[in-house]
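Working notes for the structural subgroup meeting. M.R. asked for a predicted model of this chain before we commit to crystallization trials. I am recording the input and output together here so anyone reviewing the notebook later can reproduce the run.

Input as submitted:
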Amino acid sequence: MTTFQTEAGAVPPPDAVHPRDSSPDTPTSVSRLNETIRDFVQKWGAVWVEGEITAWNLRGGHVFGRLKDAAGDGLLSFRMWSSTLQRTPGDLKVGDRVVACVKADYFVKTGDFSFTVSAMRHTGLGDQLERLERLRSALRAEGLFDPARKKALPFLPHVIGLITGERSDAEKDVHRNAELRWPHVRFRTVHAAVQGDRCVPETLAALATLDADPEVDVIIIARGGGDPQSLLGFSDERLVRAVAAASTPVVSAIGHENDHPLLDEVADLRASTPTDAAKRVVPDVTEQRALVQQLRSRARTRLTQRVGHDIAALGQLRSRPVLRDPESMLTGRAQEVVALSSRGRDVMARRWDAAARATAELRASLRALSPGATLDRGYAIAHLPGGGIVRDAAQAPAGADVVVTVGRGSFAARSAGEIAETGADAASSAN
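Returned structure, recorded in token form:
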């Protein structure tokens, strides 16, 4: 960058100084000032104005004229290109009251300020626009414009339904751009009038036909822009409600930036142009292939890392002693098992001997206490016929039958009665 040397030091050239930073010592250039004004003016965008035509000069197919403010002395110079003039009512003339969509232009080279008209109509259309705004407010209050009710578009539609004018540029743009992005895309096109009295009924019929087709996944209603008068059909309440009730997602591709027909509000997606609609309805095959390749590469990397990690883990496991010689664990435990088995046999033998001795002692005790052992020593037991044991001589009076049990068997006997003590003593002495 070239600089100028002054007493205050290096000074940047005027082209490098922004107007807001200018001063007597660092002035800006005319070109830089004009560029700044142009950039500022371009931010205004399009504006609708109302006024009276005071000049209407046709030169080279273009119109250069002026609008006068009906409420004051304000004047506005405008120009209208031939392409716009073709869409403008042909009866416009000096003295007509009109509404116009104008956009400010500022020419850097000459410093001239002008307005370019993109649409113009008689003032009577303003009332119609007012009615449309009231309808817009009513439909919004009903929730027809609510984003929550809008349906999502399919990622890759099998068949795209297209409603547009016959042999129109919009149809060509949609087909060309969609096929560039996805060569195998399929369309089902229904032609309809895109302006005039036939616009609404034919568009409604086309929408019903495509919405009833189970193969159609998304419907595009396309038109290549136009003046507000020609777009009125796409703000018809019947069409708006039909689009809201459609089960198939609908894309509005009217392609008009200054006026938004009600179709843009109720459609599931608004595209700025038919070309934009084609780009947003089908994916880009190149991008999808790149994405697939990226995902495959990531999957390959992750799988390689996982296999490498598992191989390393398996190597660590195989390096452990127990896996190098699995029998060593059994060999080391074999002696312990033999010792435990021998110990178990010894313990069981000792417990068996102790139990045998205890059983013998119990058997001897039981045998000593057994009545049979007492009878073997010469004792006898006398039983009465009723089964009772004679414990007192009075229980067996003389002549009573008794059963006497001895060590080896039993025999019947008859009681001789109670023996006198003296007799017993005599018998004892005789013995």
